[in-house]
Amino acid sequence: MRPGGRFLLVDSVAPSDPELAAFLNQLETRRDLTHQRTLPADTWLAMFYAAGLPPLGYEYFPRHHDLDDWLARAQTPPPAQAEVRAML
């Protein structure tokens, strides 16, 4: 990034509660085999500061997904779809 440049990140965030974050990540891993980990906002912020990129601000935009569409976008196999539905 050039000096004075800006960096924009748009991503999902996990709850700050470790138990809820673990559930979300388990759900996402079942739905999307490429999923690694969704981080809480405080972890993202700490990484930005550690990298010398103090945030100018951040915003949270709640999203609601249609379950069938959400599963289809990740091409979730039928057995995994059943697991996700059972978890919800």
Based on the model shown, name its key terms.
88 residues, mainly alpha, 47% helix, 0% strand
Estimate the mean pLDDT confidence: 93
Head-to-tail CA distance between termini:
41 Å
Gyration radius over CA: 16 Å
Tell me the number of strands.
0
**Please, how many helices?**
4
Order of helices and strands: HHHH
Structural class: mainly alpha
Contiguous uncertain segments of 5+ residues = none
What general outline do the C-alpha atoms trace? elongated
Strand content: under 5%
The description of the largest β-sheet is: none
Helix content: 40-55%
Number of domains: 1
Overview of this protein structure:
This protein has helices at residues 18-31, 41-50, 67-73, 78-87. With 88 residues, the chain is mostly helical. It has one domain. Helix 1 runs antiparallel to helix 4. The longest helix is centred in the first third of the chain and has 14 residues, at 18-31. The chain is elongated and about 50 Å long.
Secondary structure blueprint with pairings:
Elements: H1 18-31, H2 41-50, H3 67-73, H4 78-87
Helix pairs in contact: 1-4
Quick recap of the structure?
The chain has 88 residues and is an all-alpha fold. The chain has helices spanning 18-31, 41-50, 67-73, 78-87.
